[in-house]
Amino acid sequence: MFAAEYPSSIVPASETKGEFHFQCVWSDSLTDVSPTTSVLSTLACGLLTLFLSTVLWRRYYESCRDSSSNLPLPRGSFGYPLVGETIHFIVEGMTQFVKNRRRKEGINKTHLLGSPMVTVDSDQRIQQLVSKEPHALVSSLPTSTRVIFGENGISVVTGKEHASMKKSMKQAFTPVRLSDYLPIVQKCIRRHIVSWIEENTGNKLLGFKVCEKLVCDLILETVVGCGRDQDPDGKVRDAFVVCNENLFCVPLAIPGTAFYKVKQARQVVVDFVKKHLATADSSSKDFVTILDVLLAHQRKPEGTSLANGKDEGQDDVLDRSDQLSDIQLIDNAVSLMIAGLDTVTSSFCSILSLLGKHPDKLAALRQELESQDLLNNDLDDDLTYELIQSLPYVQAINKEVLRFFPPVGGLLRVSKKTLEFEDFQIPANWRVQYSVRGVHEVTKAFDDKQEFLPERWLDPKLEERLRTEFPCGYAPFGIGSRACLGKDLALLEMSVFVIEVARLTDWSLLNPNAKQVFLPIEKPFDNLPMTVSKRK
Ligand code: HEM
């Protein structure tokens, strides 16, 4: 009956009771409406609803400013109801998102992933904010990341507990300890690079993936002393990669979800660390691991030497007032392993990418190695901590790689109370993101920011300017009380990688102009396809 009166396109496919009723009401009142008009009016209604709800959404968040302060909120947009600017963020990617909203004030307000947020990419403003940590601004990690790191680990705990834990753990990263880890680091890096050549000469490798495998071994060996023989089927290594790949996932522990898998993988790593802890005192290995240092701090009488018999030196005398409990030790071992995997992998991959694209810089590096008789002297234990510190071009490459492609592009905080600048306020409980990548792009600390110029770091005036004028102008390892605990170990590992890759191999990039992606870590979107061969 209705099919005769209305175009077929607007007749319901199934005439259930409800749909039929709706059709009758409509037919009585809109008999002359054409399909185009009805589509347009539906669209107009939708747009009007969106417009009104957007106005209300934005008004609501504007009204959340702290009225006890006269200062306005920063400029920017809260986006659209419920989603805020999350869809823009996903489509544009984090870096472009920040870039597209860059303001001369260096601060922008938005609404992301369910919370109001400000993104900050001015080094002066970040400096002001950092001075308010850790009381008015605290670290804020997503739930999945907190669960993986462990609630008792250094990345998650706050306040006094964090300060005392950091003090205690720093003892595992002194120059004496770094010298202890160096032989393991060099052997592991060489073993992997040699295997790239032996197993893959002329074949395509994915630079990011082979570096990930390398760093996975490196971290397990340096943190817990786990050699291949202790993980023959690679179960621990696999679990470790699963944790890393799912650092940011929806925290829903239902079988089949990423979070469920991650919790199981974490348990494998935790069980492994526990097993190691139970046997650590009786183990007869002749090298020192990070966990050994933390354990020595926890258990051994003051002054006891570690496994290799090296003296700990005056600076390392153990202060026992801030000992770690067993559960803290376990969560911290896991935290160190996770914090050091993707970050170091990204930096190794960027070394391959940037030196691959700049053969003149690689030639300058080889010249420095040659001048120290290191280029052809490729023994797997010829590097010392002091020798590495005496290679300025190697250090310059590390610093420039981390400036050009900072592995961690942004640092997340949450305001505990209203924060006031001279011109804006940030209300309490807002998220704050320091954009490290943004700062590196806009700071006045560097000239020719778009150029890869390791040489800039050979000028001592640059370090001086960063210290005095731009303390937040260069922040690949973060800033303030939350700055990276593993910074010196990471730089040591990068140095060894730079030296070994330059003296052992020749490599060619197959897609040197691939776009970079930034989440969860900075890398080329295609994982850096390349070929390697023995250096001629
Ligand atoms: C190139 C390599 C690395 C980069 C770029 C890097 C970067 C960072 C950054 C930016 C932070 C600060 C996060 C924040 O403020 O919220 C951080 C924290 C941290 N990093 Fe690293 N990291 C690297 C390697 C490592 C390694 C190798 C380890 C351990 C062996 C490590 C352990 C940690 C820990 C434990 C923290 C937390 C510190 C705290 O909360 O006080 N990192 N790292």
TrEMBL record:
An example molecular function term from Gene Ontology annotations: heme binding
Cofactor requirements of the protein: heme
Protein keywords: Heme, Iron, Metal-binding, Monooxygenase, Oxidoreductase
List of residues binding heme: C484
Record-linked InterPro entries: Cyt_P450 (IPR001128), Cyt_P450_CS (IPR017972), Cyt_P450_E_grp-IV (IPR002403), Cyt_P450_sf (IPR036396)
PROSITE patterns according to UniProt: CYTOCHROME_P450
GO biological process, one term: sterol metabolic process
PANTHER family reported in the protein's UniProt record: CYTOCHROME P450 26 (PTHR24286), P450, PUTATIVE (EUROFUNG)-RELATED (PTHR24286:SF384)
Family to which this protein belongs: Belongs to the cytochrome P450 family.
Protein name, per record: Cytochrome P450 26A1-like
